[in-house]
Amino acid sequence: MEYEIIALDVDGTLTNSEKKITKRTREALIEAQRQGKKVVVASGRHQYGLKDIAHELELDRFGGYVMAFNGGRVIDASTGEVMSAKYFPQEYIKPVCDLVKDADITVMSYEGDSIIMNDKVNEYSYFESKILGMESRQVGDIAQYINFDVNKLLLAGDPALLDEYEKKFIAKFKGYFDVFKSCPFFLEVMPFGVNKGAALRPLLEKLGLKKEQLIACGDSYNDMTMIGYAGLGVCMENGASDVKRMADLIADSNDDDGVAKVVEKYMLKRTEAIA
User: How far apart are CA 143 and CA 100, in angstroms?
Assistant: First the structure.
C-alpha cells in the first residue's frame, strides 16, 4: 500500500538542534506534496509557534494540516479553519495548581497569542517563549485568572522534579486528564483522550485514507500514540529509548536529515535514500 500522508513532530524531529528545517528535508516534503501526498505538522506547540513552519513547508498551498496542542486543535492550513478543538476542563485547573503549589514548578497556559504563567519562575519558565516567539507574562494566581477556554496546561521545571510530579498526577488524576513529558523540562497536562494519535483518526477518515497509508515520525513520549497508530511508525535516532522500542523504524537523527530520508525512501521511492 502506498504511503499518502505523513505526520511530523516538530522539535527533535522535523527541525534540527538549531530549530531549523534543513534544505534537504524541506525539498523532500515539498516534492512529496507536489506528488499529491499530505503533510501534517503535529506538535505540542501553540499554533502561533507553528505558523512559520507551515509557511516554509507551503502547507497552505498544498492543503496540509497543523495539529497544535498535541491534537487539541487541528487546523486546515489552506483555509485557516479550525477543524476540531478540545479544551481543558476548567474545574481541574485549580486542583492541578494546588498539587504543585509548594514545588518550584511554573504553571503556564495561553491567552490569545500570549503565554500566561503563575509567579513561580525558574530557569525553564521562559523556554516556551523563546521557542514559540511569543510574549510571556505573569498573571499571579493562574487558576483564578483563567476564565476562558484553554487547550492545555504546561508545567516547567527541573526534569527530575517533573518526573516525580508526573507520577503524582497519574496517581491522583488518572482518567481525568493525560499527563506526559514533551521534553525533559516540560510536563504537558491535557484533556483526557487528547493526543496526536487520537486526532489523526478523524482526519484520515475525512481524507478517505487508512492508517496503513500513514507515516508518523517523532522522538518523544507525546509522539507515541501517533507512532503506534501509523502504518509506519518512525522514531528518530535521537529519540527516547521507550519510543524507539515501540517504533517500526529507527530513522537517522534530526541533525542528519532523518525525516528527509524517510520521505525520500517511503514516499518518493528513491532507491538511493537511506532511512
Answer: 12
For range 247-269, the mean pLDDT: 97
Once rounded to an integer, what is the mean pLDDT over residues 203-222? 96
Domain 90-191: give its CATH code.
3.30.1240.10
Distances in Å between the Cα of 100 and the Cα atoms of 22, 49, 96, 139, 187 are 39, 27, 7, 17, 12
Beta bridge partners of 249: 234
Cβ atoms of 9 and 3 closer than 8 Å: no
CATH code of the domain occupying 5-86+194-266: 3.40.50.1000
Neighbours of 34 (CB within 10 A): 11
What's this model's pTM, rounded to 2 decimal places?
A: 0.86
